Amino acid sequence: MAKVQGDVVIDIEQCKGCELCNVACPLNVLAISAEVNSKGYHYAIKVNGNCNGCSNCAVVCPDGVITVYRAKV
Amino acid sequence: MTQNFDIPEIRTPENLVYKKTSVLTDNVLHYCPGCGHGTTHRLIAEVIEEMGIQSEVIGVAPVGCSVMAYNYFDIDMQEAAHGRAPALATAIKRVFPEKFVFTYQGDGDLAAIGTGETIHACNRGENITIIFINNAIYGMTGGQMAPTTLPDMPTSTCPYGRDVKIMGNPLKITELLAMLPGTYYVTRQAVHSPALVRRAKKAIRMAFENQKLDRGVSFIEIVSNCNSGWKLTPVQAIKWLEENMLPFYPLGDLKVNGELVKKSE
Question: A48 CA to chain B: closest CA distance, Å?
Fold first, then answer.
């Protein structure tokens, strides 16, 4: 069976660190960084490579900062 | 040093699943982190993009947190006086009947100062779409009590909770409007979880499609969170919303195709 591999690209300068994507992610790929962006927000980061490209994080993101890719590998 | 989990080789256009729509401008939204306004803006923009009506849609911005909505949509927009968005949308739709006209209003705008305009526009059956964001509070001005504030809910003007004996009962304006003959589609949605966002998008799509039928007002209430007004973090706020707001404002369609939806229970 083909494995599905996803990847998310987060625009960290527009991210406001609301953590809604962390709650929405079923695979716990996302977390909030210890660093801050230029506006002082702790932005979302990837903490593992389990993403399957379900796009739940991008769908709930109020600021639309997440772009999702999905490929069969 | 954080580990890098990027997979650049799959970031190709054919693998793209989700991208911010081009109907929204690149301006950073001024809303608080986690606010449902941003999600709703994006849903409206996505529906406009899917229907291919970017040059044929006219939005009406309200007064409230979303007063600067026209900075974020790459469409024609008009700013209305406080609460008067349905009246302005009526005028725009009557002058340009072939255009898609929608208003975007909060609960302080639509259910407080603009109650008269809202009820009369809905009763006349104007062929417009009204998007109503209900967060049970006046977010922009500092979290004061709104007509939609829940019983016993603390706000900055009722810090001990809303006492319905003194301050009156919350106004369920969506139920009220569903009773009017001029409304064609009335529904209540939410945008705090992925499944609900996808359902809300379908409702917004239907509301815009209904304008082609010329049958009356399509009214969508979006139950949203106000993290700064409720004094909660975004994650706590969506939990509070599920526990308190949704029992009082149950989600679902109230009127579809001009017929009231009968509740099974």
Answer: 6
Would you report the helix, strand and coil content of chain A in percent, each value rounded to 5?
A: 15, 35, 50
Q: How far is B14 from chain A (nearest CA, A)?
A: 9
Q: In terms of C-beta density within 10 A (0-12 exposed, 13-18 middle, 19 or more buried), how is residue B209 classed?
A: middle
> Strands A30-36 and B183-190, how do they pair?
unpaired
Distance CA A70, CA A50 (A): 12
User: Do residues B203 and B235 make contact, with C-beta atoms less than 8 angstroms apart?
Assistant: no
For residue A70, the chain B residues in CB contact (below 8 A) are 10, 15, 17
* Residue A23 touches chain B, beta carbons under 8 Å: yes
Closest CA to B170 of B152, B190, B144, B189: B152
Domains of chain A: 4-72 (3.30.70.20)
CATH superfamily of B16-260: Thiamin diphosphate (ThDP)-binding fold, Pyr/PP domains (3.40.50.970)
* Chain B positions in Cβ-Cβ contact with residue A23 (cut-off 8 Å): 235, 238
Please report the ipTM that was assigned to this predicted complex: 0.92
Torsion on CA atoms B239, B234, B23, B137, rounded to nearest 10: 80
Evaluate whether B191 touches B39 at the Cβ level (below 8 Å): yes
CB B171 within 8 A of CB B237: no
- Of residues A7, A60, A67, nearest to B197 (C-beta): A60
pLDDT digits (tens, 9 = 90+) for B29-82: 999 999 999 999 999 999 999 999 999 999 999 999 999 999 999 999 999 999
List per-block mean pLDDT (blocks of 10 residues) for chain B, which spans 265 residues: 77 90 92 93 95 94 92 94 94 95 93 93 94 93 92 93 92 93 94 94 94 91 93 93 94 91 70
A65 touches chain B (CB under 8 A): yes
- Which parts of B191-262 are beta strand (E)? 217-223, 252-256, 259-260
Domain ranges of chain B: 16-260
pLDDT at res. B54: 93
